Amino acid sequence: MYENILKSFKLINHTASITESSESHSFGDIFDLANSFLTIQAMTHKKLQKLCYYAKAWYLAINDENLVSEPFEAWVHGAVQPSLYHKYRAYGFQLIPMFTGNISQLPEEFLNFSREIFETYGEYSGDELEKINHQEFPWIKARKGLKPWQSSNEIISEDDMKTYYRSLMDNE
Q1: pTM of the complete model
Q2: What is the pLDDT of residues 82-137, one digit of tens each?
Q3: Burial classification of residue 128, based on how many CB atoms lie within 10 Å of its CB (0-12 exposed, 13-18 middle, 19 or more buried)
């Protein structure tokens, strides 16, 4: 599965640009990132959440800086950004419509990176992305041994995201 993302991002070239220091830079907010994904396709809330999570996690791993500053939490159904959840929860299991606003208002970095993430994860449903997320170290660690049905608002560590996704790069 990760072969696509590694090829798509040309990570061999990117790893040379990773610095030792961690910066707290971001280009926009979580809603800009979500809208960038919604320029590609209408999708469920769960799928949008997971795509935004993967964008943040992979960007941290590749560039050693934040794409968005908002944290994700280790909820029952995987990584969730609470503000994004509250904005789109009314859609339930229905598709969130495609973004019809002014695309030029969205950061170019978001538009480009969301396309890269979508090339790897876009074929999966929200439920499939949840299953993938449940097998990954950052979410598991943040859950701290909770039962699958127990709620949690524990923040998924950005350092854990960076370390885990870099390890996937190193293993390819």
Answers
A1: 0.87
A2: 999 999 999 999 999 999 999 999 999 999 999 999 999 999 999 999 999 999 99
A3: middle
